[in-house]
Structures are given as C-alpha cells and as structure tokens.
C-alpha cells in the first residue's frame, strides 16, 4: 500500500467469567455480526491496566480488577495494512450490572452463557483457549501467534 503508513495498534482485552457467563462485546461491521472480548486500544502514556479499566468502564459501564496476562496474539490481515497486538488479561467484574454503550460498530456488551459461547463468531478466535482455560487445562503457551479472522 503505497503512500500510507501501516497501522500498529495495541489492544487490551478482558476475559471475565461470572456465574457461568462470559462478558462479550458485540460488533457489527460491513453487515457482519461478531463478538470480541471487551477492551480496546492502548493510549499513549497509559499502562495496560489503566487502559483495560478505562475501556471496560467506557464500553460496559463496569469497574474491573485486572489479574494475570493470559495470552498475546497478533492480528495481521493478508495485505498487512494494519497490525493489532492483542493482550488478553483475566479480570474480575466488580459488578454484574452493565451500562453498555452503543456506537456505530459496537452494538453493546452483554453477559453470554457458557453454553451459547461456542456457537458465536469470536474475533480473534480464541474460543479453544478460553474453553481450555475454563476447564483448568493450561498448555503453558502464552503467545498464540498470528490470528487474522476478518
């Protein structure tokens, strides 16, 4: 892509499980509906923990306690016009009460049952790792490599 600078973005996301439910953000773009772990972009001068707390407050209206880093992974499209470094943390919601926002792409944030979760389209696709984590299976692998789903 001549004439444009490629984009590098650091995205923090939270894996939050409560009472048999997982917190997910619903997105709709180019007519496609999909889900993400809630979170967003790191801003200059912000720590990873600050960014994750800010994003959950902005998207879902909840406070969280950030725990351990679970996984890192890259999302790079075939044309390499952007590169998203995803950092997924385990977190605990300080309340189950959501005040989700709705934007052009972000359709809202909601609790999804663990039974419904495997049927959803999740970007980047970390469903296998999440289910293994929930079942207490830890492979020890923290860097999940390249996952481009879009």
- Shape, per Cα inertia axes: globular
Query: Mind summarizing the main beta sheet?
Result: 5 strands, mixed
Number of domain units = 1
Low-confidence stretches: none
Note the gap between the termini: 18 Å
Question: What percent of residues adopt helix (DSSP H or I)?
Answer: 10-25%
Distinct helical segment count: 2
What's the oligomerization state? single chain
What structural class should be given to the helix and strand makeup? mainly beta
Given this structure, which CATH class is correct? Alpha Beta
Q: Label the CATH architecture.
A: Alpha-Beta Complex
**Elements, N to C (H/E):** EEEEEHEEEHE
Q: Going across the major beta sheet, what is the strand order?
A: 5-1-7-6-9
Rounded to the nearest angstrom, the radius of gyration is 15 Å
CATH superfamily: Nucleoside Triphosphate Pyrophosphohydrolase
How would you sum up this structure, described in words?
The protein is mostly beta strands. It has one domain: Nucleoside Triphosphate Pyrophosphohydrolase, CATH 3.90.79.10. It is 14% helix and 43% strand. The protein contains two helices and nine strands. The strands form two sheets. The chain has a five-stranded mixed beta sheet with strand order 5-1-7-6-9, with helices on one face. Strands 2, 3, 4 and 8 form a four-stranded antiparallel beta sheet that branches. The longest helix has 13 residues. The chain starts with 6 loop residues before the first strand and ends with a strand.
């Amino acid at each position: 892509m001549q004439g444009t600078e490629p984009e590098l973005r650091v995205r923090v996301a939270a894996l939050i499980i409560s009472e048999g439910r997982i917190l997910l953000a619903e997105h709709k773009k180019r007519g496609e509906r999909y889900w993400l772990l809630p979170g967003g972009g790191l801003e200059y001068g912000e720590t990873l923990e600050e960014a994750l707390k800010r994003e959950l407050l902005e998207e879902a209206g909840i406070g969280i306690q950030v725990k351990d880093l679970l996984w890192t992974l890259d999302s790079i499209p075939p044309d390499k016009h952007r590169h998203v470094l995803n950092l997924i943390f385990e977190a605990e919601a300080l309340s189950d009460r959501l005040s989700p926002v709705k934007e052009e792409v972000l359709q809202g944030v909601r609790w999804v049952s663990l039974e419904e979760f495997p049927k959803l389209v999740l970007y980047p696709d970390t469903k296998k790792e999440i289910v293994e984590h929930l079942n207490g299976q830890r492979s020890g692998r923290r860097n999940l490599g390249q996952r481009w789903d879009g």
